[in-house]
Write a structure and sequence with these properties.
Structural Genomics Hypothetical 15.5 Kd Protein In mrcA-pckA Intergenic Region, Chain A; single chain; Ribosomal Protein S4 Delta 41, Chain A, domain 1; 10 helices; 5 strands; 2 domains; about 210 residues; alpha+beta; five-stranded antiparallel beta sheet
Length: about 210
């Protein structure tokens, strides 16, 4: 499974905004954006003096931002776009819906993990069941009616022991239902654009791939 292994904080600095890639750290003074609010690299401090960004540059940045938020590499992201393009409806909204339906994202949205990277690790290590069966594929897409839960055996793990107390204060998105006592969640509907709180202009991503 290919994955990004460099510093996650560099990605936030490059995009000039918090992508919340490291969970609680992003809310603390240790956040890289709070300490160094300029792009990484030798000439990062001079970024504000660079020439105005072109249309292509804006489209590329938006595509990169969306890809990095969900932790998806380019080849897989392009495959998701092709699926969204063939699906009835607005391509940009379809793309976001597909990304939201990834199993690692659902685990994150349900509050079982502090970040999508941590959720991806929980799935890959076999701590998550999909419809009662162990699933270790973070990119698996959920459908309406699917149930995502922490495996019975894994609930004795130290990480999950106090998770129920944390989930009492967690609010899952409207397209998901959360059962705190069972450490599980259910997909009520496919997510709509209004239910997806991601700070991107998906139309720019569509324009990037439609050049």
């Amino acid at each position: 499974m290919a994955r990004y292994i460099d510093s996650a904080c560099k990605l936030c600095r490059r995009e000039g905004m918090k992508l919340f890639l490291k969970g609680e750290r992003c809310l603390s003074p240790k956040c890289a954006i709070e300490r160094r609010a300029y792009p990484p690299g030798l000439h990062g401090r001079q970024a504000q003096f660079r020439r105005q960004e072109s249309d292509y540059g804006a489209q590329l940045r938006e595509k990169q931002r969306l890809r990095r938020i969900y932790g998806v590499l380019e080849r897989q992201f392009r495959r998701y776009f092709d699926i969204a393009l063939r699906t009835r409806g607005q391509t940009g909204a379809n793309l976001l819906s597909i990304l939201e339906r990834r199993l690692d994202n659902v685990v994150y949205r349900l509050g079982f993990a502090d970040s999508r990277a941590q959720a991806r690790q929980l799935v890959a290590h076999g701590h998550i069941d999909l419809n009662g069966r162990k699933t270790d594929t973070p990119s698996a897409l959920v459908s309406v009616g699917d149930t995502v839960s922490v495996r019975e055996k894994s609930r004795r793990n130290g990480y999950f022991a106090g998770l129920a107390d944390v989930l009492e204060h967690h609010s899952a998105p409207a397209w998901l239902s959360l059962n705190v006592g069972e450490l599980s969640g259910r997909v009520l509907q496919l997510p709509t654009r209004e239910q997806i709180e991601v700070p991107v202009q998906e139309q720019l991503v569509v324009e990037y791939y439609s050049r």
